[in-house]
Amino acid sequence: MQITIQEHNCQVSEELKEHVRRRLEKLSRFFNNIQRVEVLFDQVHGGGGDKPHRVEIKVTVPKAFFRADEASTSFRGSFDLAYDVVEREVRRFKEKLVDRSHGER
Predict the structure, then answer these.
(1) Considering the entire predicted model, what is its pTM?
(2) Alpha carbon separation from 77 to 45, 46, 53, 89 (Å, rounded)
(3) Domain containing 46 — which CATH number?
(4) Average pLDDT, the chain
């Protein structure tokens, strides 16, 4: 699994980047054929209101693509919210594949 972390209008600490890598590597527990994960950290200026820290996660697997975009008062909080969404989507996708391969019960 290839993990890419990008920063836009901000700087993210190495500690947070390591947290991101550790959490994303856990996605392989749910689906072992993840090809690529992209994470974008963005500091929203002006129009962000009370949630200026935005994180977007894109996960690419064969024949599917998952995306989550969350904003909050901190990058870590935004990442954790987006990660929960992506994890749920990956789990659902895996369950759907398993159900199809075993037929209707």
Answers:
(1) 0.88
(2) 18, 20, 9, 19
(3) 3.30.160.100
(4) 90
